[in-house]
Amino acid sequence: MSGGNPEPVLSVAELDRRLRLAVETASGDFWIEGEVSSLKRATSGHVYFTLKDEAEDAVIDCVLYRFDALRAARVLVDGARIQLWGKVTVWAPRGRLQLVGQRVRPAGRGALLVALEELKKKLEAEGLFDPARKRPLPEAPRVVGVVTSGAGAAFADIRTVAFRRGSVRLVLSPALVQGDGAVRSLLNAIARIERYPGLEVLIVGRGGGSNEDLMAFNDERVVRRIAAVRVPVVSAVGHETDISLADLVADRRAATPSQAAELCVPDARAQRERLERCRTALARTFQNRLHLERAAVQRKRTRLADPRFVIALRDRELNDLERRLRSRLTRALSQRRSALSALHARLLTRHPRAVIALGRAELGPMPARLSAAMRLRLGVSRSELSRASGRLDALSPLSVLARGYSIVLDARGRALLDAKQASPGDALDIRLSSGRLRASVTDTTSDAVPATAAPEEPE
């Protein structure tokens, strides 16, 4: 201190508030692009992760709160490259710079996912993931090997479940399951446990974690080593949503270490109960079968008590069958004979001579009937013709001419009905009942009495 004015002292909270205000004011909202790493989903629904820049080895902590995280669930994956819209702030409880995101959109695939996908395609092409190479697990193994961390909860879960289910020897080959030396440690642990005498099945796994924590189980050397183990392998890496290459190459996959123990160690109590049920069912089946066989023997013994009785019974049945057969044959033969007689009678009625005679008998009266019909038809036709001729004569113009009338035609052959239709000097043609007259008009009058024309000299 100097003078009477002491220097101001800030609390940590006040400093955090000033830093947050300064950062939020200076940065504002913006898009940022990077690769997702260390993804963690909290029980509250919030998602915490880091965005890293591979080119400059830079990272920043990010958070998406529940509602925004739900919308971006498909995009947010470890190793994915994304673009995040948000603003930078300072989280007071930790005094940490943090980017609070609001919207997410994919920006391609991160280098980690690309490399992992290429390795997966390579191993799949070699057939390491082929279901045909998967080996079945032993039904009741006595020695079960475990490769995992000796200090983690995974082996404790496996031991608890295995000893609860039955009597089995668990052999732990401890290894690092994450970090820089995890790959080499896992390879050494697998080689060490594989040399253990009597080993029947091997569990390789850990207790979950982020995708970065599981990267040792995606390493090509570890995957190939698991594929080469001489006994069946159960992979228990991560949780239900985390699939590693070790899961794909192993003979069986378990979602958790506890499930791996359940797959490898049969439940002794359930086996005893199942064995007891099988023993009871077998005894019941044997007793039922014995009763059935005894009853069958008794029936056969009863039937075979006196062979003469059996022979007599069969002889009686044979005689009865013979009698029934003869009766059916006689009845069938009688029916066939009756049908044959009917067919013979029908055939006689259809003999050609009979058919011809019947046709001749039917044709005999036909000529007389035809002549009578023709005469009758001619008489009727003549009467109709006579009546039609009379009507035609009554309507014919010639009959009118025969009564003294004539038809006057002009030079164009039209019949004249009125004197006004002709003019003096017109040539006329007058048709009579017999013959024609040529005349010329000398005069016309409009009287009702028709004008008379002087006949011309015949040409």
Fold and architecture overview:
This protein is α/β, with parallel strands linked by helices and 459 residues long. The protein has four domains: 98 residues, OB fold (Dihydrolipoamide Acetyltransferase, E2P) (Beta Barrel), CATH 2.40.50; 151 residues, Hypothetical protein af1403, domain 2 (Rossmann fold, 3-Layer(aba) Sandwich), CATH 3.40.50; 56 residues; 64 residues, no CATH class. The protein is built from 13 helices and 13 strands. It has a five-stranded mixed β-barrel with strand order 1-2-3-5-4. Strands 7-6-8-9-10 form a five-stranded parallel sheet, sandwiched between helices. Strand 2 and strand 3 form a beta hairpin. Helix 5 packs parallel to helix 6. It is flat and about 165 Å long. The N and C termini lie far apart (174 Å).
Beta-strand residue percentage: 15-25%
Give a short account of the largest sheet: 5 strands, mixed, barrel
Shape: flat
Total count of helical runs of at least 4 residues: 13
Q: Helix/strand-derived class?
A: alpha/beta
- CATH class label of the largest domain: Alpha Beta
Number of strands: 13
Going by CATH, the architecture of the largest domain would be 3-Layer(aba) Sandwich
Low-pLDDT runs of 5+ residues are: 449-459
Strand order of the largest sheet: 1-2-3-5-4
- Gyration radius, rounded: 63 Å
The CATH topology of the largest domain: Rossmann fold
The residue-averaged pLDDT reads: 82
End-to-end separation: 174 Å
CATH superfamily of the largest domain: Hypothetical protein af1403, domain 2
Number of domains: 4
Share of helical residues: 40-55%
Secondary-structure element string: HEEEHEEHEHEHEHEHEHHHHHHEEE
